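STRUCTURE:
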């Protein structure tokens, strides 16, 4: 017995595809955020190492230009770290938006999947009722013929 096709199968297929696309977008956003965090940590570690080196060499420096060069470098690094933190905040917002879009796409898909399941169950019950009625009718006709 062939099953009844789901009227909204194309919509369900579309929503499954949208969920897959949203998963990819979310994964990309998360990867970008993780990479930016990794870069920030690397920059902070570099600044820490150079700060230690500067503190060690500070007593030996005899030229004001060397101090100015270190000072400029540290100022530039502080600015780069500040910009990196701002970028991380933006990437975090993007990732949260992508997460919300993914959740919405998943909900939309699940609604249709549950509707499809409900329709399939209704169809099975309807077919079982028809079969039962048919068998009852055959049984009644046999009794009428034998009487």
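SEQUENCE:
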């Amino acid at each position: 017995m062939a099953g009844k096709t789901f009227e909204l199968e194309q919509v369900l297929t579309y929503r499954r595809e949208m969920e897959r696309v949203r998963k990819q977008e979310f994964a990309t956003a998360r990867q970008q955020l993780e990479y930016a965090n990794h870069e920030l940590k690397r920059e902070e570690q570099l600044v820490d190492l150079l700060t230690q080196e500067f503190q060690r060499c500070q007593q030996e420096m005899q030229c004001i230009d060397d101090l100015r060069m270190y000072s400029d470098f540290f100022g530039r690094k502080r600015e780069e770290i500040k910009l990196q933190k701002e970028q991380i905040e933006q990437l975090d917002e993007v990732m949260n938006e992508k997460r919300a879009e993914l959740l919405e796409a998943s909900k939309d898909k699940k609604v249709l999947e549950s509707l499809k399941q409900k329709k399939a169950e209704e169809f099975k019950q309807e077919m079982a009722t028809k079969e039962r009625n048919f068998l009852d009718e055959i049984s009644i006709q046999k009794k009428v013929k034998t009487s």
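REMARK: The longest helix spans residues 64-146.
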